[in-house]
Design goal:
The protein is an all-alpha fold. The protein has a single domain (about 1-75), classed as Orthogonal Bundle (Type 1 dockerin domain). About 30% of the residues lie in helices and about 0% in strands. It is built from three helices and no strands. The protein has helices spanning about 5-15, 35, 50-55. α1 (about 5-15) packs antiparallel against α3. The longest helix is centred in the N-terminal third of the chain and has 9 residues, at about 5-15. It is elongated. The relative contact order is 0.23.
């Protein structure tokens, strides 16, 4: 959330890869969906390869970019 898309964002995304909106019943220290739904960039209910691709396509972008003010969403 620092306005710059970098390897830190890609790493954070990878930590939650495979989670979906039905998750949240794991061990006490496991994050609930409400805590990580910001990683579901295409809003399909899953943190999957499409979300990773969105982050990868936006690596090195700093917001706001006057030419492209929104993330590139097309995986």
């Amino acid at each position: 959330m620092d306005g710059h898309c970098d390897i830190v964002d890609l790493s954070a995304m990878a930590k939650h890869y495979g989670r979906n909106s039905l998750d949240g019943l794991g061990p006490p220290l496991y994050k609930t969906w409400a805590q990580i739904d910001g990683f579901d960039l295409d809003a399909d209910g899953d943190i999957d390869i499409y979300d990773i691709v969105i982050v990868a396509k936006n690596i090195c972008r700093t917001e706001p970019d006057p030419e492209y003010p929104w993330p590139i969403l097309d995986p």
